[in-house]
């Protein structure tokens, strides 16, 4: 089962839901409209041609500073990025981060029957950082969604128990957001900075 | 441990006068408790000795791995990956480096892939030894624990020979490994495996038919294959339930396709099957290492043709400083054991030939201007490894299951986002399901068979 088949089966089934797709470095990826996530996930799980029984990973990326990093040292203009060698398929260039959405929530699926993988990317705006929860389809999504909430502040509609998981209840902010300073300390006892 | 009587009594008016009053008990276990190997808190609701509900609280070892990875360059993340699953750090090293290599679009030489596979299989054996030993110890078989740690010691001696460190190895580099295997590695490896097999046999004799052990392992902590998959459980834990998924077989990476090994699969999904699967996997991992050592392509013979010996790096610097380039060119530098593993030199058959990714061999950095420039460009800030913009996910088979690295690059010298999929996170999320309805005492073997590693669970 090839990557293009997987991408095609999702985009054909849900022509309105899929915003974009690519197979950068051989990772089949479909960018989805937020509203249709649950529908597409159910299709991926139940359709006999896809049968994604594993929700391997669920995470988020904060794209707010993508490409806006501090300028490099003046002599580094000659630093070249590395050319890919022919061994890796690179017919599909990476389309870049989702345009005006700050966050992207990512789902990595795997099928033990067909031995294929698919990544779903759901762009999420900063104003309403919320997507549908997949806990009804995969109970394993429970903790993964709690972690994404804890680290990025992205909510999950329909999650049975959305609380922090790695940080403590009193923690203020979401540490993996790009605007959270890396050296900020929030000890429960003692001075804060 | 503190007990906390919960007020949930039947009102006196509804109570049968001859009935004894019963109430549920909330039992708090952890965060630091002798029966838990790791910092984790369980809050159990008990009805007598039966667990009715359990809430698992993790995060006590959270160190911000993913945040720190965004702050350092690509090679700088490797020491952090050592501390994810600190019982088998070489697998984490390999997974992370392979993810960045996939992002860069480069591949490493075959000998390097063999070296990585050998080291990660040795790590897998030591990980399983620790897990089985700790589980046995918690059930009272302290001897087995000591035997297993003895065997782990033989394996860590091997790791030390190769990497120069025992625990925080930092052996892989983006684009290669830091040094080749020692010259006569097959021999100590054979000896260590011989000893390890003896220990496994001994442990097998002490545990597998031991009434005390089997009574507590059989039929406890049962999970079906379907449930395990829905929780995202992989690795030996899933295979004990009957699932056959193994990343090394199903999505082969490195040279696993060329190496023969079997994937042991259980049927009942209980603690006993998980123990048996782990015992068999150790044998299979040793088989992989033995085949790999036999089949791997040879590296070059590393002696200076003129003197018949390698040149120590410090001596090479002195020679190069006084302009005696003729004496160092063509030789290979050997650094001290703390710097360069076993004192082995760097050479092309264990690292990619992509000059923009991998540091040059020391003799080039000291001996010619091209090597010096390459070293400078890679080490100076803003010049290091700079993958093109993109995102990749790469799974490897960790000791507990699928260990995935998801890396996003924005084209600069630091990763934009590094995400680890820790295998025991999924297993821990299923822990309430595993424990519910069981006896309080069954918690100990079940928790032992999860092989919770705080470093990768909490990151």
CATH superfamily of the largest domain in chain B: Cytochrome-c3 Hydrogenase, chain B
**What order do the helices and strands of chain A follow?**
HEEHEEEEHE
As a percent range, the share of helical residues of chain A equals 10-25%
**Secondary-structure-derived class of chain A:** alpha/beta
Describe the strand arrangement of the main beta sheet of chain A, using strand numbers.
Answer: 1-2-5-4-3
Question: What is the CATH-assigned architecture of the largest domain in chain B?
Answer: Orthogonal Bundle
Q: Which two chains form the greatest contact, residue counts included?
A: A-B, 53 and 66 residues
CATH-derived topology of one domain in chain A: Beta Polymerase, domain 2
Shape of chain A: globular
What's the number of domains of chain B?
Answer: 2
What is the topology, as strand order, of the major beta sheet of chain B? 1-2-3-4
Distance between the termini of chain B: 26 Å
Multimer state: heterodimer
Major pleated sheet of chain A: 5 strands, mixed
Largest sheet of chain B: 4 strands, antiparallel
**CATH fold group of the largest domain in chain B:** Cytochrome-c3 Hydrogenase, chain B
CATH domain class of the largest domain in chain B = Mainly Alpha
Number of strands of chain B: 11
Name the structural class of chain B.
Answer: alpha+beta
Provide a descriptive summary of the structure in words:
The complex is a heterodimer of chains A (193) and B (459). Chain A has 193 residues and is α/β, with parallel strands linked by helices. Chain A has a domain at 3-66 and 87-157: NADH:ubiquinone oxidoreductase Nqo5 subunit (Beta Polymerase, domain 2). Helix content of chain A is 17%, strand content 22%. Chain A has three helices and seven strands. Chain A has helices at residues 3-13, 37-46, 141-152; strands at residues 18-22, 29-32, 54-62, 103-111, 116-124, 130-132, 155-157. In chain A, strands 1-2-5-4-3 form a five-stranded mixed β-sheet. In chain A, strand 6, helix 3 and strand 7 (155-157) form a beta-alpha-beta unit. Chain A is globular. The two termini of chain B are 26 Å apart. With 459 residues, chain B is of the alpha+beta class. Chain B has two domains: 2-57, no CATH class; 65-298 and 385-458, Cytochrome-c3 Hydrogenase, chain B (Orthogonal Bundle), CATH 1.10.645.10. The model of chain B is unreliable at 301-305 and 338-343 (pLDDT under 50). Chain B is elongated and about 100 Å long.
């Amino acid at each position: 089962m090839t990557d293009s088949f997987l991408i095609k089966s999702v985009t054909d089934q849900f022509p309105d839901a899929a915003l974009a797709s690519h197979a950068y470095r051989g990772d089949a990826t479909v960018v989805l409209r937020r509203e249709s996530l649950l529908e597409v996930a159910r299709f991926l799980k139940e359709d006999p041609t896809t049968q994604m029984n594993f929700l391997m990973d669920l995470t988020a990326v904060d794209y707010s500073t993508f490409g806006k990093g501090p300028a490099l040292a003046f002599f580094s203009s000659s630093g070249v990025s590395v050319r890919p060698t022919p061994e890796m398929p690179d017919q599909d260039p990476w389309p870049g981060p989702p345009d005006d959405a700050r966050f992207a929530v990512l789902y990595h699926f795997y099928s033990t029957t067909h031995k294929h993988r698919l990544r779903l990317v759901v762009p999420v705006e900063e104003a309403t950082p919320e997507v549908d929860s997949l806990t009804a389809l995969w109970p394993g999504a429970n903790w993964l969604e709690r972690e994404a909430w804890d680290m990025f502040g992205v909510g999950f509609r329909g999650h049975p128990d959305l609380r922090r998981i790695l940080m403590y209840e009193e923690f203020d902010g979401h540490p993996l957001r790009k605007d959270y300073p890396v050296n900020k300390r929030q000890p429960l006892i003692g001075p804060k900075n | 441990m503190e007990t906390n009587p919960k007020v949930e009594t039947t009102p006196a008016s509804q109570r049968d006068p001859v009935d004894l009053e019963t109430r549920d008990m909330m039992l708090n276990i952890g965060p630091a408790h002798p029966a838990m190997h790791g910092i984790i808190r369980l809050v159990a609701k008990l009805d007598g000795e039966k667990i009715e509900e359990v809430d698992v609280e993790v995060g006590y070892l959270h160190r911000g791995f993913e945040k720190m990875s965004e702050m350092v360059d690509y090679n700088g993340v490797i020491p952090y990956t050592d501390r994810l699953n600190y019982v088998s750090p070489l697998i984490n090293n390999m997974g992370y480096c392979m993810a960045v290599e996939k992002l860069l679009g480069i591949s490493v030489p075959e000998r390097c892939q063999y070296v990585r596979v050998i080291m990660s299989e040795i790590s897998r054996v030591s990980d399983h030894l620790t897990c089985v030993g700790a589980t046995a110890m918690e059930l009272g078989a302290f001897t087995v624990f000591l035997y297993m740690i003895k065997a782990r010691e033989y394996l860590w001696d091997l790791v030390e020979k190769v990497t120069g460190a025992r625990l925080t190895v930092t052996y892989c580099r983006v684009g290669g490994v830091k040094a080749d295997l020692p010259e006569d590695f097959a021999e100590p490896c054979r000896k260590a495996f011989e000893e390890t097999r003896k220990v496994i046999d001994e442990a097998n004799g002490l545990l597998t038919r031991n009434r005390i052990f089997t009574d507590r392992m059989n039929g406890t902590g049962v999970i079906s294959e379907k449930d395990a998959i829905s929780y995202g459980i992989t690795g030996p834990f899933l295979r004990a339930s009957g699932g056959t998924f193994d990343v090394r077989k199903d999505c082969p990476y490195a040279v696993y396709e060329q190496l023969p090994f079997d994937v042991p699969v259980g049927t009942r999904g209980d603690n006993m099957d998980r123990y048996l699967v782990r015992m068999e996997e150790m044998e299979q991992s040793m088989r992989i290492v033995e085949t790999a050592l036999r089949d791997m392509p040879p590296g070059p013979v590393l002696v200076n043709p003129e003197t018949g010996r390698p040149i120590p790096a410090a001596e090479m610097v002195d020679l190069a400083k006084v302009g005696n380039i003729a004496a160092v060119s063509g030789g290979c530098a050997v650094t001290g054991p703390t710097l360069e593993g076993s004192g082995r030199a760097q050479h092309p058959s264990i690292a990619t030939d992509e000059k923009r990714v991998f540091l040059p061999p020391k003799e080039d950095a000291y001996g010619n201007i091209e090597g010096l420039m390459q070293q400078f460009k890679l080490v100076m800030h803003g010049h290091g490894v700079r993958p093109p913009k993109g995102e990749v996910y790469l799974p490897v088979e960790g000791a507990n299951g699928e260990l995935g690295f998801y890396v996003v690059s924005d084209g600069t010298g630091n990763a934009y986002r590094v995400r680890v999929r820790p295998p025991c996170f999924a297993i821990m999320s299923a822990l309430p399901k595993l424990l519910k309805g069981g006896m309080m005492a069954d918690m100990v073997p079940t928790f032992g068979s999860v092989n919770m590693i705080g470093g990768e669970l909490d990151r």
